[in-house]
Structures are given as structure tokens and as C-alpha cells.
Task: structure prediction
Amino acid sequence: MGIQSAILFETPRDLFLRVFQELKPRTVPPRIEIEFKAFANANCSIRLAENTLVVRISDVLQSMPAPVLEALAYLLLGKLYRKPVPKMYAERYRRHLNRKEVRRTLQLVRQSRGHKLVSEPKGKYYDLESMFEELNLRHFDGLMARPQLGWSLRPSRSMLGHYDPSHHTIVLTKLLDSPKVPQLAVEYVLFHEMLHLRFPVEHRGARRCVHTPEFKEAERQFPGYTLAKQLLKQL
Result:
């Protein structure tokens, strides 16, 4: 029986044990517990507690093929023990997540289990709804349907804004809702997120292309593009 055939008959626990022994051959393996949890996404985690490896995997992935579970085992154990892992395992795992049926299932799970916590679109200084409508008329001929809009509950400097397709929501960091932030900078961030509605994420095998060439070209058409990026860098 070949190695690939043997993988098919391993239990998840046996598979993780085998990968552990391959990454740490001179270490006595701990107990291993595998739990499939009803997460709102494809999150997975691993931790070592009292000589027990506790692995939690989203139940959305419970039916994934054995080679994909093997790839996940390498990624989780490699990260926990800071061991280098061949790139093929990351590519194999990403390719599975990028499959159309898996992406569709994850989107449905996020919609049913997830909650989008945002504040009202009308901030202290900027109103996202009125700003959206102005940008919509100016750049999209008023044809873009307005998603849910809101400010983040906490200020973030690392993520100025994001579009969540599962909840059809655009969120901007409340850091931008300030008299110290020029309106041009806020408009640019909102415009950037609106482009995600116009140019959805593309999936190509193991690759996930968020900002396509068409996206980047449209973004450069924003009046004051260079100045807006300079203003945001100052934050």
C-alpha cells in the first residue's frame, strides 16, 4: 500500500500523531485531542496544555480529504513548534479553501453564525451614507447598491477599512472619524472599499487575488489619489 493510500485510512488523531513524529522525531509525543467546532469561519487552532495537544478545527472542514487534513496538520504543528514546512502543504490547503463549493459553504456559515459589530454610519464628523451616495454618483453613475455601512467599534491603524461580502458590509476604522483627518482621505478609503463591490476577489488555484489589475487601475482614477495616500501615511 502506497503512502497516499495509507493516509486515507488514518484517523485524524493518527494523522496528527504521524506528522508530529515527522517534525519532532526525537520527542515523546503528547496526547492528541481533535475537536471539530461550529466556528463562524474556517478558523483552526492548536495549543499544548498539560502534555495534551488540543486541535480545534472548523466543522466546515470536517469532510475535507485526508491529504488536505495532512497539510493542515503540517501547518498547525509547524507553527506551534516553529518548524519549517514545505510550501506544497500551504498551497494544498489554500487550494482546497479556494474551491468554489467550499467558498460558498463558508459564506453561508459566516452569514448564519457570524455577527458584524459596527457602529452607526453617521459618525461625529463624517457621515458614511451621504459620502457613499456622493461617491456613487461621481464614480459609479449612482448604480451601486448601498451595502451596510458603519464605523469600527475600536480604532485601528493597521486596517483602515474593509468590505465583508458575507454580510455585505463596509466598515471604516473610527480613527478616520476625526477633524484631524481630511475628508479626501476618508473618501479615498471608502472609495477603495466600494471598488471591492465592483471588482470581487478572484480565485486562481491556490491564489486569492484581492486587488486585481482592473481594481488597481480603477483605484488610480480617484481624484487626489496620490495626495490621499500621503495623508493616510501620516496617520
